[in-house]
Every structure is written in C-alpha cells, then in structure tokens.
Design brief:
- By secondary structure, this protein is of the alpha+beta class.
- It folds into four domains: 16-157 and 169-233 and 583-605, Sandwich (Immunoglobulin-like), CATH 2.60.40; 237-270 and 463-582, Immunoglobulin-like; 275-459, von Willebrand factor, type A domain (Rossmann fold, 3-Layer(aba) Sandwich); 620-762, no CATH class.
- The strands form six sheets. An eight-stranded mixed beta sheet has the order 5-4-9-2-1-12-15-14.
- The longest helix has 19 residues, at 544-562.
- It is globular.
- It starts with 15 loop residues before the first strand and ends in a 7-residue tail after the last helix.
- Residues 279-455 form the VWFA domain.
- It comes from Oryzias melastigma (Marine medaka).
Length: 769
C-alpha cells in the first residue's frame, strides 16, 4: 500500500501532526494565527519542507518556533541573507527554520524545518493580517484554503517552480482545529459557513462580539469559508491606529496610520441605466484541471459549469455590442479573428462552439492569449471588457499581472476563480490591476449569479476623473500608501491607507473626499473622522492597520520594481526591503529566519529530506399587460404565480421522477439575441403545456413571438424568482423587445391579453405534470 503525504526517503510519515488556526476579526480586518505542530519520529535528524497556500493580499508578520522548552522568534531579513544563515545553521548542526514567499506568486509560502533531532517535537507559529473581501450581499468573506494544487509551469519559463506533490485532501494525515472571534462597533448579525460549525455564541448584550468554532471531525474536502454579516456594514468609516512607541517618529511604524473605507452610491439616473455598447472578450480556461468535478458534485465539472455560465452570459449581452471568445491551455484558440457584432447569427455560432468545448488543451498558458487580446485594436465607442474564467493554477502570476497593468487603460478585467485551488493572487490581482471585479466559485456556489453580477458591473458606465483630497489641520501631513483608485462600481467598497505625520493629533479632526464622474454626473463621497488613534487590537496586541498599510506599499513597490531596470530597480528593491523589515511584513525579497543558538549541542547524523506536499428584475417587465389587472383587484399574476409555484413544489417533492436538466438554462438557451422567444415546441415543454393549449389561449391579434415572450417572462417570475440574479438581464432584454412591439399592437390586443388568457393557460391542468 502506498503511503500519502509528506514522506521521508524511507517512506515514513511526515512529522506534521496537527494544525491549529485562530481567527480574530475586527470590523473588516482579520488576524490569522496558525500553529503547526511537528514531531520527528525518525531515528535521524530531519529537514522537512511544508508548502502551503496563503491569501495573496495577506500581510505575513510573525513567525516563531518552540522546540521543547526553547522558544525562538524569527527575524525578517533580506531573502538571500536569510537563506545563507539557514544553510550555515544546518551545516553546523543547529536547529533552524526558514519561511519565505514564492518569487512567482505571493500566495504560496514554503516553510523549511531544518535539523529537527530524533524524537523531538516542534511548534511553528505564524501570523498574518488580511482585509476581508465584501460579497454582493455585504457579507465579509474569509477563506482558509484546504488545498494547494500543483502550479502549471509555462514552457520556457526560467523561474523555478515549487515541486509540489498532491494527494487527495481526505487523506491528509493531520488534524485541524479552527476558532473564530469577531468584534465590531456594529452588531454581528450572523456567521455562515458551508462547513459544520458549532453554534454562534455572543459575548455581550449588544451582540458586537461573538465566537464560533469548527465542529469536530472536519474533513479536508473543502476550503473553510466564513461569511460574516454586520448590521449597516455599508456605512463609510475611518480608523486611526497609533504608531509604535519603539519605532522612530516619521517612519511608517512610528506614525499613526488611517484606514478609510468608502461605499460608493451612484445617482439614481445612473443606476437605472445600462450600457448597450461594449466589446466583451471571454477567456475560458480549458486546461486539464478544468475537468475536475465541482465540489459535492459527481457529474458537473468545472468546464461544464463554465459552459453553462457562458450560455447565460451570451444571452444577456446587449444588442449593439461586440464580442469574441478565447480558450486556452498549453496553446490558445479564438472563435473569430477579431471581435464581431452581437447578432442572432453570431450568437448561435458562438454557443455552438461553446457546446463543443472540453478541458482538452493541456496546460495553463494564460499569458499568450492575453498578449494576443491586448494586441487587437480596440473598437471606437465600444469599451473593452475582459472576462477571465480559470481555476488559477499557474506559476507566472506576477508576469500576468504586469501585463494586465500595462493594458489597464484600454479595458476592464473581470476574473473568476473556479474551484478550491484557484489562486487568490492571480484572480484578485487581475481584477485589481484591470480595474474590474473578482469572484470566487467554491464548494456549492453557483457560478451564474456571480458572473451576472460582474456583467452588471461591466454594463455600468466607466468612472473617470477619480481624485482623492485630504483636509487636515495645519501641521499634519499625509503620505498616501495605497495606489491610486483605478475603478469605482455602484455598491462597491474602496479602501485607502495613509500615514499621518505631525502634532496635536489627539484633539482635532480631518476629512477625506473621493470625487469622480460617471456618465457625465459628478459624484463625491466625503468622510470626516477623528485623528485620535483608536486602541490597539487588544486580542493580538499588534499594529494590524500598520501591517496592512505596509503590505499595500510593498505590493505597489513590487509592481514598480518589475517595471524598472538597473540602478532604478536596485533602488526600488532597497526601499521595498527597508519597508518590509521595518514593518515586519514579508515580501518577495525578504524571508523569516529562526536559528536556535541557545546551546552548543551539535545534532549528528545524515539529514533526512522529505518530499514536498501541498496543504493545501416584475412590474416593469410585464408593462405590456398594464398594471391594474396584474397587480390590482383581479390579481391575475398573483394567482398565476401561486398556482405554478404549488405545481413546482409538488414536482420537487416527487423524488421518484427522474431529474431533468436545469429548466432555467433550457429556457434561456431558447431566447434569441434580440430578446424575444419563439413559440417553439421546446418552450411549450418547459411551460408544462401542450402546443394546442398554448395556441388556443393566445389572443387572436397577438403575434406568436409576443405571446411566447410574455409567457417566458411569467414563467421566470413565477418559477425561478429565487434565481432572479441569474436571469435579470435576460428579462430586461425581453422587456426592451416587447416595448418595440407595443406600438405595433392595437389596444384590443392588449385588452385581450388583460382578460386573463395567461391565467387560463398557466393554471395547472388535470393530469398534466
């Protein structure tokens, strides 16, 4: 029987015994403390390397080790110097530990545990700080990755990849404990997870503090994902954190730091309008890993889910736009030589091609198709919107982000990470550098609502003339640490970090104003805040905001360094290392090194080197009928809705009947590019009626297309209201088409519809399913 996991040369088990994770959430910021417990069961000293995933926007700020009764706190040093010290320590038989970030992707870390004596135990503690992402429903999302998939190394790449071995997550040979503490100025409404959690416990009467734990027996079959809900979470806020007494004033760690958060709200006239133009380029990953099943699904693979989503996306595109579809693996393909105008013909051609797609293109070479896309001339008056679907298993993340940033002035990038192994650094980075929005699809998530939310963002007019101004008292200056705001979307959040330098910070107030223009409308968000520093985090006793601010500056400097040459590059790198070491936040050019120099004991014997292991929208849409009969005293629509819902629920309870394909996707697939439906036999089947029944109840002067479209809209609102996010744009197209037909119809036609023909048709018929 083959053993799995981190194995020694003699195929004995890895010394990692357990992982303990403590999550401390304060408003929008989380501190994560992980403890890795090792034991060397070999009869020789062991050197183990543990590769694990880390969010790409996490500030790794502490690393320590406890061996027996000896506690060692690591120092953050320039990476090459740290590696040399590690090698020297091993050569002299000393116990040593090295924690470093991958040079290719900031979401992979490797921990080297060197020269652990026979029978000895060691506990490794590492800590990082992260700003939590805000979901569409205003939940704060935290994810603890359960798996790190092997990263694809592009051909010809000179960058050394991490040689990671992968095993089924259910066979991971160690345990996990996970506890959460949440505190905020606003009440905690609820905490949700798809993992089994113990009941939420509130720690005070106003429910601003709460704790929860992962239930015992958790299997490594999914990421541990939490959704944290606060009341009034969208309100703007600013927090000032005091500088450290031990740091020199005028430095990042010695001065106060402010974290300002804005929730953008566009004028109603802008929110109610949607663009009917644009060039939509869809880039789909067809590498072999996309053939992996979605979590908790025995038959639906990642590529299947992506293809279903492309169907919905294509049906939702506005008339008048342009589009193209690319797919990639170890090479790439494109449907058209250049983007074409969206029409019934081109849409059908594209959907036929999508239906034929499979995960059969080998590796994950995403850089080359991106270069080809950016090499195409933009279409005047058609802003380019790039949608990227990938499971994110690449190693040249930084090269990809550099390319997206170089072309950020000509497009917006919306990225989607599919599956638990998707790289947060790649998916978040592409959206950030491309001025778009990132989404992750994990566990039981449906891809469609998240993609449709991003499409609604893409249909919002681009925001321009973005500026940030500070109004501070005399003597107080500001050093903005965040890069300039590149994109603003309705309902989304922007965060700004800045260092405050000057006197009298304890008694005065300041303000911050973000201005921009959208569709010719000037907008602004203003926030006033006290410059009096808040108390330092009592749970972690650490400068969390300073560390997040430092990470923001580090990532900015890393991008700048990759765009420089020679002496300029060296200068930026020196500044980057200085900020990293001063703040204690890891970077691509620094590493944590810990050496036990407490005794002179030399550990003898040949070193055992284990293998690497990867740890892992109804009223407006039915205007055609008129308001009175649908929503007034006759309540026709309510009666239709009620009767159909009863029938649908009855069907869902009948488990003896075979399951059909998703009727929503079937209905959407029948819609034409202009937004109408034809009175097709397949539509009649979805409605649950016979063709004769549909024809018999149709008002005489109403065209078949109008009748079919009206029935399809009613079906959506009555049978699929819970999936409104997915079909809302499809319904809007249908409404716009009906508006063009309304002027062609006589009042008697509309009156005929209002008499209740729809009611007569859609009432359940005895004996009909």
């Amino acid at each position: 029987m083959n053993r799995c996991g981190l194995l020694t040369a003699q195929k004995n088990p890895v010394p990692l015994q357990s992982v303990e994770v403590e999550l401390q959430v304060k408003d929008h910021v989380a501190t994560v403390i992980s403890t890795l417990n090792y034991q060397n069961k070999e009869d020789k000293p062991v050197e183990a390397v543990f590769v694990f995933p880390m969010p790409g926007d996490a500030a790794v700020c502490h690393f320590s080790a406890k061996i027996g009764q000896t506690h060692i706190v690591a120092e953050l040093k320039e990476k090459q110097k740290a590696r040399e010290e590690y090698d020297d320590a091993l050569s002299s038989g000393q116990q040593a530990f090295l924690l470093e970030e991958s040079e290719q992707s900031p979401d992979i870390f490797s921990l080297s545990v060197g020269s652990l004596p026979p029978g000895e135990s060691a506990s490794i503690r590492l800590e990082y700080v992260i700003e939590l992402a805000v979901e569409a429903d205003e939940a704060l999302r935290f994810s603890l990755p359960a798996v790190l998939n092997p990263r694809y190394q592009p051909q010809g790449s000179e960058a050394p990849g991490l040689p990671v071995s992968s095993i089924p997550t259910s066979e991971v040979p160690y345990s996990l404990s996970f506890s959460v503490r949440v505190s905020s100025n606003r009440p905690v409404s609820k905490i949700e997870s798809k993992c089994s959690m113990e009941p939420l416990q509130y720690l005070n009467s106003d429910q601003t503090e709460a704790t929860v734990k992962l239930a015992a027996g958790h299997k490594f079959d999914r990421d541990v994902e939490l959704l944290i809900y606060y009341k009034d979470a969208h309100q703007p806020s600013a927090v000032v954190e005091a500088g450290q007494d031990s740091a020199e004033p005028g430095t990042l760690m010695g001065d106060p730091v402010v974290m300002a958060s804005f929730h953008h709200d566009f004028p109603e006239s802008v929110r109610s309008s949607a663009s009917s133009c644009g060039e939509f380029v869809l880039l789909l990953d067809r590498s072999g890993s996309m053939d992996s099943p979605m979590a908790d699904s025995d038959h639906l693979t990642r590529i299947d889910s992506a293809k279903e989503t492309l169907l919905l996306l294509m049906k939702s595109l506005p008339m008048g736009c342009y589009f193209n579809i690319y797919s990639f693996g170890d090479h790439f393909e494109h449907l058209f030589q250049k983007s074409v105008r969206y029409s019934q013909r081109t849409m059908r051609q594209a959907l036929k091609k999508v239906e034929e797609m499979s995960a059969d293109l080998g590796g994950t070479e995403i850089l080359e198709p991106l270069q080809h896309i950016y090499g195409q001339h933009c279409i005047p008056g058609q802003p380019r919107q790039l949608f990227v679907f990938t499971d994110g298993e690449v190693s040249n993340t930084k090269n990809i982000l550099d390319l997206v940033k170089e072309n950020s002035g000509s497009h917006r990038c919306f990225s989607f990470g599919i599956g638990p192994g998707a790289s947060s650094a790649l998916v978040n980075g592409m959206a950030k550098e491309g001025g778009g929005h990132a989404q992750f699809i994990t566990d039981n998530d449906r891809m469609q609502p998240k993609v449709m939310q991003s499409l609604r963002f893409a249909l919002q007019p681009p925001v321009g003339d973005i500026s940030v101004t500070w109004d501070l008292p005399k003597g107080v200056t500001v050093n903005v640490l965040s890069p300039p705001i590149q994109s603003v979307f309705q309902g989304q959040r922007s965060v700004i970090f800045a260092q405050l330098t000057g006197q009298s910070l304890q008694t005065v107030e300041g303000s911050l104003t973000v201005k921009y223009s959208v569709a010719g409308h000037p907008c602004q968000s203003q926030l006033s805040f006290s410059l009096k520093p808040a108390d330092m985090d009592s749970c972690t006793d650490s400068p969390t905001l300073h560390r997040l601010a430092a990470l923001t500056q580090i990532r900015w400097l890393e991008m700048e360094e990759r765009g420089c040459d020679g002496e300029q590059s060296d200068s930026v790198k020196q500044k980057l290392v200085e900020v990293s070491v001063q703040s204690g936040v890891s970077s691509a050019f620094t590493a944590f090194i810990a050496v036990d120099q407490s005794n002179d004991r030399v550990i003898k014997g040949p070193m055992v080197h284990p293998e690497l292991f990867a740890d892992l929208y109804l009223k407006s849409s039915l205007f055609f009928f008129g308001d009175d009969d649908l929503f007034g005293s006759k309540n026709i629509f309510r009666r239709i809705y009620s009767s159909i819902r009863k029938r649908v629920l009855a069907r869902s309870r009948d488990s003896s009947k075979p399951q059909r394909e998703d009727p929503l996707l079937q209905l959407v697939s029948l819609q034409e590019a202009c937004g109408r439906w034809l009175l097709d036999p397949a539509l009649v089947v979805i409605l649950g009626k016979t063709r004769q029944e549909v024809k018999k109840t149709k008002p005489g002067k109403v065209t078949k297309e109008v009748w079919a479209t009206v029935l399809a809209l009613i079906w959506l609102h009555s049978c699929k209201l819970e999936a409104k996010e997915e079909w809302e744009l499809v319904a809007m197209k249908a409404v716009l088409w009906l508006q063009t037909q309304k002027d062609k119809s006589s009042p008697s036609v509309q009156s005929g519809i209002q008499t209740g023909a729809c009611w007569n048709l859609l009432m359940p018929t005895r004996g009909h399913p």
